[in-house]
Amino acid sequence: MLIVMAGLPGTGKSSVAEALGRALAAPVVSVDPIEAAMWRAGVGRDQPTGPAAYVVAEAVADGVLALDQSAIVDAVNAVEAAREQWRSLGKRRGVPVVFVEVVCSDQAAHRRRLESRSRGIEGFTEPTWEAVRRLREEFAPWADHRLVLDTTTDLPSNVATALGFLSAARKGR
Predict the structure, then answer these.
(1) Phi, psi (degrees; rounded to nearest 5) at 148
(2) What are 29-86's pLDDT values in tens digits?
(3) What single-letter DSSP state applies at residue 119?
(4) Among 28, 127, 153, 159, which is most exposed with the fewest C-beta within 10 angstroms?
(5) How far apart (Å, rounded) are the C-alpha atoms in residues 71 and 24?
(6) Under DSSP, is residue 132 helix (H, G, I), strand (E, B) or coil?
(7) How far apart (Å, rounded) are the C-alpha atoms in residues 102 and 152?
(8) Is the torsion defined by CA of 127, 132, 133, 134 positive or negative?
């Protein structure tokens, strides 16, 4: 199964992805550390490292799926092209693709999380609240069936909900 996390920066999607990865013993392929690694390797920030990081994440997830293991992709996935990338990978590998969108309905809490977080990704610059607000306006509407988790709910409850959703998806319901 290919589990694709989506949502604005600072909503808590990486925390959910990591908890799911532990629960499912599935690797989490995260776009932000990949992009930061490109910058550390000397690729200029003026280059399209964001789209390139998605391509690298796809290659890593493809390798995991080739081993008959599930993979979790941790990325914003705000645009249809990104979502189609994951659907295409799932189709090529013959595995279900499950989207999990993570939101934070409390704008003040979302902003506090974003502005106070320090994920320790060497060379990665966290986005500003203004950048997240702009991204929210550009976030493409969803056509895919997906689970929406609101991180105003506690992490264990959200993970339990996600595990139930993934179990049903695995059974084809």
Answers:
(1) -110, 120
(2) 999 999 999 999 999 999 989 999 999 999 999 999 999 999 999 999 999 999 999 9
(3) -
(4) 153
(5) 9
(6) helix
(7) 10
(8) positive
* Pairwise CA distance, residues 114 & 55, whole Å: 25
Which residue type does 23 have?
A
Residue 103's DSSP bridge partners are 150
Q: Pick from 9, 119, 34, 17: which is nearest to 70 by CA? A: 17
- Find the helix or strand (DSSP H, E) in which 98 lies: strand 97-103
Beta carbons of 43 and 49 less than 8 angstroms apart:
yes
C-beta of residue 158 within 8 angstroms of C-beta of residue 149: yes
State in words which class domain 2-170 has.
alpha beta
Residue 93 — φ and ψ, nearest 5°? -90, -5
| Better pLDDT: 24 or 118 | 24
Residues 68, 72: Cα–Cα separation, whole Å: 13
The single residue listed with the structure tokens 């502005």 is 115
Residue with the two structure tokens 């081993």:
67
Order across the sheet with 97-103: list the strands: 28-30, 71-74, 2-6, 97-103, 146-150
Q: With DSSP H G I counted as helix, E B as strand and the rest as coil, what are the percentages for the chain, rounded to 5? A: 50, 15, 35
CB 24 within 8 A of CB 70: yes
Give me the pLDDT at residue 173, please. 59
